[in-house]
Amino acid sequence: MPIVRCQQCGESEDLSGARVGNEIEITCNVCGRSWLRDAEPTCPDCGGRALRATKEPVVQRARGTAYSVVGEKTTYLCEACDAGEIARRFDPLKTETSQREDPWK
Ligand SMILES: [Zn+2]
Ligand SMILES: [Zn+2]
């Protein structure tokens, strides 16, 4: 887990955090700056924290059946709820033959 540091004064210890919806607002007690920090991801189904981060390509359809990768985003899979999905993603052979995912969504 990366160290949270105040970008204004560099303080990394005298910080307080408050949960705001899905995010955490960090307040620096030294200079008073506050900012939002992404909360630790949790599974929306079971609330568990045993999540696997996976990089998903963001694709754009070009022409015909070709498409190009224009970037990537990080998504999280729950080891409890998405065990099948994790097995599929981390097994390249299964990934190639699976049609479950629609990349054009
Ligand atoms: Zn500060
Ligand atoms: Zn879950």
Describe the 3D structure.
- With 105 residues, this protein is mainly beta.
- It is 12% helix and 38% strand.
- The protein contains two helices and five strands.
- Strand 2 and strand 3 form a beta hairpin.
- The longest helix is centred in the last third of the chain and has 7 residues, at 83-89.
- The mean pLDDT is 81.
- One zinc ion is lined by residues 43, 45-46, 48, 78, 80-81.
Named once each, the bound ligands are: zinc ion
Fraction of helical residues: 10-25%
Average of the residue pLDDT scores: 81
Distance between the termini: 32 Å
Low-confidence spans: pLDDT under 50, at least 5 residues? Answer: none
Treating each run of at least 4 consecutive H or I residues as one helix, how many helices?
A: 2
Class based on secondary structure composition and strand pairing? mainly beta
Q: Could you give the order of the helices and strands?
A: EEEEEHH
CA-atom Rg in angstroms: 19 Å
What does the oligomeric state look like here?
Answer: single chain
Question: Approximately what portion of the residues adopt beta-strand conformation?
Answer: 35-45%
Q: What characteristic shape results from the CA principal axes?
A: elongated
Main sheet summary: 3 strands, antiparallel
| Count of individual beta strands | 5
With strands numbered from the N-terminus, the spatial order across the biggest sheet is 1-2-3
